Amino acid sequence: STMEDLLEVQSAYVEQTGLAGYMSTQAGAQIAESIDKVSAAYSVGAGTTVGAVQTLMQLGSSMEDAVKLTAGMYKAAEKSGFDPEMIGKDLVDNAELVSTYYGGMKDKAIAATIATKSMGVSLKQVGGIVDKMLNIDGFMTDMYELNAMGGPDLSQAFELGLSGDLTGMMKEVMNATGGLEKFNQEAPLVKKKLAATLGMSV
Question: pTM of this prediction?
Answer without folding.
Answer: 0.79
